[in-house]
Amino acid sequence: MATQSALLKVMSDAARKAARGLVRDFGELGELQVSKKGAADFVSAADLKAEQVLFEELSKARPGYSFLGEERGLIEGTDKTHAWIVDPLDGTTNFLHAIPHFAVNIALRREGAVVAAVTFNPIANELFWAEKGKGCFVNDRRLRVAARTRLDEAVLATGIPFLGHGQHAKFLKELHQVSQRVAGVRRFGSAALDLAFVAAGRFDGYWERDLGAWDLAAGMLLVTEAGGKVTNADGGDEVIDTGTVCAANLDLHPLVLERLRAAA
C-alpha cells in the first residue's frame, strides 16, 4: 500500500475538501438551465469558492509559501523558495455543461522545480499524486506510462483552440500531421487529466499549446515520475513558462515531436 508523505497528505486533503463543494455545485447544474450568464456566473462562483478553500487549507499547513492560483493570480509569501501552483477547477467548460470530467490541480514548486503534485478527479474518485523521486500513484496504485512504441498503435490527447483563444491554423496543421499516423486523437477538455492519463498509461501521449502554469505544473511531475518524458511542444525543457507541452513515453516522445515539427 502506497503511503503519502506529510506534504502529500496536506495537498490531498486540501484537494478533497475543495472538491466537495465542486461536486455539490455540479449536482445542482442540472437545475440551472437558465440564462447563459447565470450558468457561467454559477461556475465562476464555484471556481472562486474552491480556490478559497485551497488557499486557506494550504496556507494553514504551510504558512509563508507563495500561492499562484488561476483565479487570484500570484500572492507573494514570505518564503521565496516555495510556491503553490493551483487550478481549483480544470475543465471549467465540461463543468458548465454538466460533463463529469474535471479536476482540482495542486503543485508545489521549490526553487523553480515542481517537487510534489496532486490531480484529483472527484467524479471518478481518482487521486493522482507524485513526489519528486518517489514515483507516481493513483489512489494506492503505482502508475507507469504505456509501453507502446509505435505511433500507429498510439492514442494521443490534445486540446482544440476555441473562440478567441489559441492558434487555430497551427493546431489544424498539427492535427493533420498527427491524426493520419496514430490510432486515435482524443480531446477531453482537461489538461490536468490529460497529463494524469498519460501517467496512467491510458493515453500514449499528449500535446497542447496556450496553457497556464496551473494547467501544467502537477501533470508534468506525474508523467515524469511514471517514467515518461515531458518537454514543451518544440522539444525544449521550458514547459511552464512557454505554456506548451508534449508528453509521452520515451519511445513515442521523439515521434510525436517529429510530427509537430512537420507541421511548422
Task: Describe the structure concisely for a colleague.
This protein has 264 residues and is of the alpha+beta class. It contains seven helices and 13 strands. Helix 1 runs antiparallel to helix 2 (36-61), helix 4 packs across helix 7 and helix 5 runs parallel beside helix 6 (213-225).
Q: Could you walk me through the main structural features you see in this protein, from its secondary elements to its overall organization?
A:
The structure is a single chain. Helix 1 (6-28) runs antiparallel to helix 2, helix 4 (168-179) crosses helix 7 and helix 5 (191-199) packs parallel to helix 6 (213-225). A hairpin with a 2-residue loop joins strand 7 and strand 8. The longest helix has 26 residues, at 36-61. The chain folds into two domains: 6-142, Fructose-1,6-Bisphosphatase, Chain A, domain 1 (2-Layer Sandwich); 151-262, D-Maltodextrin-Binding Protein, domain 2 (3-Layer(aba) Sandwich). The N and C termini lie far apart (46 Å). The chain is an alpha+beta fold and 264 residues long. It contains seven helices and 13 strands. The radius of gyration is 18 Å and the shape is globular. It is 38% helix and 25% strand. The chain has an eight-stranded mixed beta sheet, with helices on both faces.
List keywords for this structure.
264 residues, alpha+beta, Fructose-1,6-Bisphosphatase, Chain A, domain 1, D-Maltodextrin-Binding Protein, domain 2, 2 domains, eight-stranded mixed sheet, five-stranded mixed sheet, 7 helices, 13 strands, globular
